[in-house]
Amino acid sequence: YCMNNLFDSEESYINALRIKPQPQDRLLAERLGIVYAKRKSWRDAKTVFLKVCKERTSTNAWFYLGLSLVRLGELPAAEDAISQANILDNLNPQTWALNAILCLNYGQKRLSQACFALEQALSLGLKDLMLLEELGDMLEAQGLFSEAVRVYSLVSALIKTEVQAICGNYGTDETQDSDPAEVVDLKRNRGLVLQKLGKIYQNDSFKENDIELAISTYKVAIKMVHGVNNKQNIALMLQSLLTQVNRDHEVAQFKNYLPD
């Protein structure tokens, strides 16, 4: 479990829970449910956490039950579970973040509630990269560009801090051959987030539209993303934006990524 070996963890927890009489460790079932959640086996996770929530009081179990129900599209039941988690601990930033995601699933009808829950999550120090990026994507889809920029910027900053913690201050934006696999993944993810930020910065519907900021953001992103298509898409964006601001001479540095 601690090594994130999900399949072996699942088998071990299932075998442990089959022992008669059952072990007294109350975390066994909860950890099995978390393994299912990490594997995105949402129906199995829902079944496990429903049982855990009936047997004992656990903020974590109510949170994961709510998460499973959101993923399954069972929004009314998810709201009940998230509310229970919030009653037990209203200072948990992940619960507030999940509440915001729930509200955003309802679209325009509950945007004010979503923004309130988002503010609570951020003020309480939300650092869950998965939840933050999902929130950014949903906010951007709803046209809440300022909020999306705030969330994406936080994701980028958190990833950069994590990379520096692993590599020290010598870590660079560009992926290096000497980078550990964990750092490679972090940099790639940050590159994708910066790509999303650049897209918003150049969007005419964003009230703080800033082509210069879009250009500088894309320049960092292109060093970090992986895949020919991603690099080519960013290079094409840079070519267009640099031409708009009469800086065509800078396009040459990205010619390797541009289509022939």
Automatic annotation (TrEMBL):
This is Uncharacterized protein. It comes from Favella ehrenbergii. PANTHER family: CILIA- AND FLAGELLA-ASSOCIATED PROTEIN 70 (PTHR44314). The lineage of its organism: Eukaryota, Sar, Alveolata, Ciliophora, Intramacronucleata. One of its GO terms (biological process) is cilium assembly. It comes from the Eukaryota. Keywords: Repeat, TPR repeat. One of its GO terms (cellular component) is motile cilium.
